Amino acid sequence: MNLERGLILAAAAALCAACGQSDPLGDPPGSTGGEALIADRAGAACVLVSPLNQVGATQQMSVNGVAYTRSHQPDAPGPLERPIPNPGPQPAGSCRGSTGYRFGSGLYDDTGPIGGDPTGHADLAGMVAPNQTINGIHTRLYARAFAIESPCNGARVMFVSDDHAFVTALLRQQVLKAVAADPVLSPFYGPDNVMLSATHTHAANGGFGVGSFPADPPPGTPQQVRDAYNYVISAGDSPNHFDADNFRVMVDGIVQAMRRAHANLAAHAGSAPIRMSIGELLNANTSRDPPAYQQNSPAERARFSDANGHDIPVDKRFLQLSFVRANGSAVGVLNWFGVHPTAMHNHDRLISSDLKGYASLGFETLMETGYAPDPGGVPSGEDNFVAAFAQTDEGNSIPDLFVFDADVDGGNGPGQGVPYRYRFGTDDPYWLDEPGSERGAPKAAAVFGTKHLAQAIRQFGAGSALSGPVDYRLFHVDMNAVTVDDPAITGTLAYPDLPQNLYADAKATCSSALGQGFLAGGVNGPQFGVPGFTCVDNAPIPYRDQMRSGYNGLYNGSGGLEFMKNGVYFTVPVEGVPLFTASAPLLCATYATQAEYACQNEKPILVGPGGPTAPIQIFRIGNLAVLGVPWEVTTMSALRLRQTVLDALAPVGVDTVVIAGLSNAYFQYMATREEYTAQMYEGASTLFGPWQLAAVQQESRRLALTLAAGAPAPTGAPPPADVALGDPSPVTTDQPAEFGRVLADAQPAYNRGDTVDVSWVAGYPGNDLKTMSSYLYVERQDSAGAWRVVATDKDPELLFIWNWASDPVGIETHVVDSSTAQAVWTIPNNAAGGVYRIRHEGVSRTSADAAPEPYTGVTTAFRIEGDPEACP
Fold it and tell me: Is residue 264 helix, strand or coil?
């Protein structure tokens, strides 16, 4: 027996030993393990012993045998936010102490079109700049839904986690309209009990209600004018103008996932426990804004120190719900862990669900989840395992573990430290002039996706059964004009170990505005701008000198504006520090005279974006409360906000609160009052001023108190008015060609670990999105001669890349002169031996008046020989 196989067997034995035991991190008694329910036990064992889990676990980080730092600070165990002991009694009645719930899960593909010139579709959303014109797929995107009912009172909720950067008011509006028009869903679900949350991947299609920067042409602008405008903007920005084709597949995917979850619940009359476990996921996230976090109260920060006495500036809590029926049928897992899914980085041009989607797909693969469409369009209601890795307090949390580490010589000033492309501990290329950078950082996504997946496996089926009723509340708040006057909040806002002048201002929100530091981006996607410029110099801890001379110079701006057009890369030098030194006083002087912005205090205002009213929502699932807010919440903001809601709900039996960030709309960031003083990216993006968090605490408390009292939600502000949809997406056409003809064929044989790189003459793939299907199929021939699918374009080891050529006239008229479909398959080390081929299913459309024509291209068969490894 070789060492690797021995490790796999040991891990499998550990899985067996865990079955029926409580959570290893000390959840309350009564927990049961669900590891025995995993269909691919050996595959799960491989995940647990994967060397990817060890990235960042030691002081030294090496890539390909070269050490880049020897002073990395690995995570150590620390205090973990667990259920509070002895909450008050649950409401009287049949739901008190009830642990039986009905539940259902559902997933559906909502991958949008490949975009950019000459197609007229939107780019990737989330990073803004440089341009991220879509030219392929790393992994497909899915909406994952969970319907939950407490039979004791008949109340139910629907939670959706979607593989996109944001949820917008427009997206929620159209989803709710579709639900209201659905005779099956509408009797059970509506605005109050449907929560839509985004995973926040920055490698998903845009164009669904978050405007571009600069602004889009207004609806109704002639297509030719819009095309010319977007062509110019897309040299250095990612146009995310409204994309009707992407919007349609997103709305439909979310609604179809809800239909499946509802049908799955309806098909199972019996109830079963939902188990909640809380674990600690280490070496999977780090802070991108240490200078801002350090402004928080020293006494408050000291409560969250690890076993080595270091600050824990980002949340390590991994909270998971396991859904398993009484007969042992596994329905799904829903978990929350706060980290930006930006591992694919801001030069990536492939659609990707990033690290959270990697984990979701990995768990679903272990559970043999099916991704086929419903026969006849009607969900069967059968169990089909769904794994949702949802988003929570990721505001200042990134996966770039080594981004600030000193180099092997101890240097961490400008130009020193770990080279930027190695900040994940992988060798993925980053800079635009490095070959392969347009394919993102799939190795990094695999590292941090594996860490998520391993933690979810460890906690699957573990924990204590939730108990109590399902309930829900929703209301809207005009965040431009909130006065914070609730004594329960105002009495908590001043910290005695910080200067009291921080708290002297009137506690009220301001008209929304982005700050100058927004142009800095984060260190996980730096732009030419720089953070830290303020109108008022009152930060409790001095930070500017260290920002400029330390942190590897990453707070000094990228040094230039990056542009890429038609494969040509160039930069325009822009030194952010002198530029912002000159511009910040002008911005401060301009806006200080405007009453609606004067209360922004430290923020040099760049632009006032406005926006609709903000939705705040609470789901109660027994002793767990899920707070849905439309912000990216920083770690310390989340700690305070959770405590506020918990204080309101603990008297009625709620002992745990989790925040579902980026829910139901999008209003940028939420920093603490103290973090706001430093005007890092998060503070600059806290729209409503220094007292935004306090206002959200107050309004969330108002909502929670109505839930606790069994009273209707507060009146609040009116919901957002209907937003009109934008213009239809243009139709892209192909010049006639021999579609499906193989251009680069497979070699006769390959070894495991090799890359199979093949291509075909192609039509434009966006004219058929292949929803719940695929553009690519890796197939293996079985003993009867039939071809069995082993990978599709949803799988991270198989990349689909579309390459095209058009002249300027073709770009303006959406005509593709020629294009290729490329498959890049990295053969897993555990691939079975035998005969394989790769098949491409595509479409062509030579006229806007004609329907897309399907075609097929197939490579020559090839062999993979020898014995497979135990793990991929």
Answer: helix
User: What is the value of pTM for the model shown?
Assistant: 0.96
Are the C-beta atoms of residues 476 and 718 closer than 8 Å to each other?
yes
Q: What is the pLDDT of residues 841-871, one digit of tens each?
A: 999 999 999 999 999 999 999 999 989 999 9
Q: Is the dihedral of CA 610, 725, 192, 168 positive or negative?
A: negative
DSSP 110-147: ------BTTTTB--EESS-SS-----EESS--EEEEEE
173: closest CA among 263, 250, 246, 257? 250
**How many Cα atoms are found within 13 Å in the side-chain-facing hemisphere of 735?**
14
In angstroms, the CA 244 to CA 241 distance is: 9
Q: What pLDDT, on the 0 to 100 scale, is given for residue 211?
A: 64
Closest to 349 (Cα-Cα) out of 568, 566, 133, 119: 133
Q: Say if CB 285 and CB 451 are below 8 A apart.
A: no
| Model confidence pLDDT, tens digit, residues 767-811 | 999 999 999 999 999 999 999 999 999 999 999 999 999 988 888
The three-point CA angle 468-459-361 to 5° equals 105
Alpha helices in 367-504 (DSSP H): 442-459, 487-490
Residue 29 has pLDDT above 70, yes or no: no
State how far the Cα of 816 lies from the Cα of 316, in Å rounded to an integer: 48
**Contact call for residues 202 and 119 (beta carbons, < 8 A):** no
End-to-end CA distance of the chain: 18
